[in-house]
Design brief:
Blueprint lengths: L3 H16 L5 H18 L14 H7 L1 E2 L2 E2 L2 H21 L9 H5 L5 H5 L11 H8 L6 H16 L3 H5 L6 E2 L4 E4 L13 E4 L4 H14 L30 H15 L7 H14 L3 H10 L5 H8 L4 H9 L4
Antiparallel strand pairs: 1-2, 3-4, 4-5
Helix pairs in contact: 1-2, 2-4, 3-4, 7-8, 8-10, 8-11, 8-12
């Protein structure tokens, strides 16, 4: 039976995420699904007694079985990450009640090496520049496919998320300064409502395609959508200022469609953001360069960027090690 106070503590933490951290509903939903395992693990025991609960939470997750299936390694990693964040919040919010929870114990909430190596975080997939070039070079007169090519080029060059592109007004695209203004107050839907200026990678064929599209939509009022809707007969662009919630699915469909047409394996639009970061990291030479990459994708710190994208691919490791003698 779930401890009532534990449940209220979790709810308080989720309220903190929503109202203070301004987390999106999808983020809160994922956090709850991970923290639910923490509640079930503690059962009737109050969270302040967590260090004495056996088995430990990491062991519990490894052995957890539901409908004959174990938790995926990536899910275990996310559950433990969320648990560490919850306990850190609880120690601050209820210092007296959670005084038995030490920082050392919180740090112990991590997966073993086997789980980490199989979590899917080491070799995540992303679009390479070669794949993006193959898509951009695909010849077509179809307006819908042309727009899909622009989506690929813009997402790779900017590293923005699909929902930001789907809601981006024309006024926020400043190609004269090679940048995009991701300002929520101007209608751009960013993660956690973060605001920032994103600069485009200087890849000429991609920028050329982006400029041509920009010229097409500049005849519309400046608060119309840059990633413009298309008429049903596929003959013209339609000016509109309305970016309905869920329009990122349009970007997803477009990317899938152009990948199929160009003969490139489809990955989600978010993998273009991954490709942007990996391309930039591979060309970085100093810590200052890495900090610039992190700021450009609107991460709160370089640590966040490193945790998500900082794993070198096998070929990069090989090239680096074999070049040391030179």
């Amino acid at each position: 039976m779930i401890n009532r106070q534990n449940y209220h503590d979790i709810k308080s933490y989720l309220d903190y995420m929503e109202n203070i951290q301004q987390a999106e509903k999808s983020t809160l939903k994922r956090a709850w699904s991970h923290l639910r395992h923490l509640l079930e693990w503690a059962d009737e025991k109050p969270f302040p007694r967590s260090p004495s609960i056996t088995p430990t939470f990491p062991t519990y997750l490894v052995n957890y079985v539901s409908n004959g299936k174990k938790l995926a390694p990536s899910t275990i990693v996310k559950c433990l990450t969320q648990a560490r964040q919850f306990y850190a919040y609880a120690k601050t919010a209820w210092q007296s009640r959670y005084k038995t929870i030490s920082d050392t114990w919180i740090a112990s909430l991590k997966p073993n090496r086997k789980i980490r190596s199989n979590s899917g975080m080491r070799n995540h997939k992303f679009y390479t520049l070669d794949q993006v070039m193959k898509i951009v070079e695909y010849d077509t007169d179809n307006l819908h496919l042309k727009r899909a090519k622009v989506a690929v080029a813009m997402l790779f060059c900017s590293g923005m998320r699909a929902d930001a592109l789907a809601s981006l007004p024309i006024i926020c695209v400043d190609l004269e300064n090679n940048c995009v203004l991701q300002f929520p107050e101007m209608g751009v839907r960013t993660k956690n409502y973060k605001s920032g200026i994103t600069y485009l990678l200087p890849i000429d064929p991609l920028l050329e395609l982006i400029h041509k599209w920009d010229e097409m939509v500049r005849s519309f009022p400046e608060y119309c959508l840059w990633y413009s809707p298309i008429s049903r007969d596929n003959s013209r662009l339609i000016p509109t200022t309305i970016a309905y919630y869920g329009r990122n699915s349009t970007v997803q469909k477009d990317v899938r469609m152009i990948c199929q047409a160009a003969g490139v394996a489809y990955l989600s639009p978010h993998k273009l953001r991954h490709g942007h970061v990996m391309y930039a990291i591979q060309h970085a030479k100093t810590i200052k360069d890495l900090k610039a990459i992190s700021a450009n994708v609107m991460h709160s710190s370089l640590v966040v960027t490193d945790q998500i994208y900082g794993v070198l691919q096998d070929i990069d490791v090989k090239n680096f090690i074999t070049s040391l003698e030179k």
